[in-house]
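My current task is to audit a protein record that another person submitted. What it holds is a sequence and that sequence's fold in token form. Thanks in advance; the entry in question is below.
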Amino acid sequence: MAELTRAAYQAVITDRGYGDITTQIAPASDFEYFYAEDHHQQYLYKLPNGYRCHA
């Protein structure tokens, strides 16, 4: 699915004059997953108004 999506999107961005997609696509089993610290888990549930753009 990821490879097909990348190919479809690559065709669109190439047509518009942009370069190649260089993001690596690999099986999730190739990587070790780490859960975030507890204060990052369910952040918006714990702090419903806790996110704002600082720009």
Summary: The chain has two helices and no strands. The chain has one domain: 2-46.
